[in-house]
Amino acid sequence: MTSEAQGELIAPDGGKALVNPVGGHMVLKLPSALTGGAYTVHDNRMPPGSPGPRPHIHQRHDETFYVLGGELRVRVNDQIFDALAGAFVFVPRGAVHQPSNPGAQPAHFLLLFSPGGMDRFFEEAAAGRLPLQGFSDDPDTLARLDEFCRRYGYEFAEFAAS
To answer: Which pTM does this prediction carry?
Structure first.
């Protein structure tokens, strides 16, 4: 059996650089279009001391963090994982979670979503269509944010009381 499928090389400086909506540097290395919608891969750097995004849930995506350098803390429901280089943290869809960087150095990690599709979330957010920074109580802003997030099965959430 032969295949017409082609491989893909993404150079070390390749990919699509994006402004991370919560700060730091993000490069879309493997968009869902190249994986038939199976998954996406982002190369991410989170600044030292960053609290990361607000606690949230992905209703349609599993999320995996593979730490390449620094320290990444990921709270998943009532668990807290302190992950150093070489560690994976898996977050199943539907779990409340929040990654952060408690360290003094940038946290460098690959961010994988399965199935694909979250790449479009980050591309739209980087294009300025997602008001994640400078949160306000403005009803119009909150309505836009809610509508945007729902399209991607992304919901802000709270951790259950311990």
So the answer is: 0.90
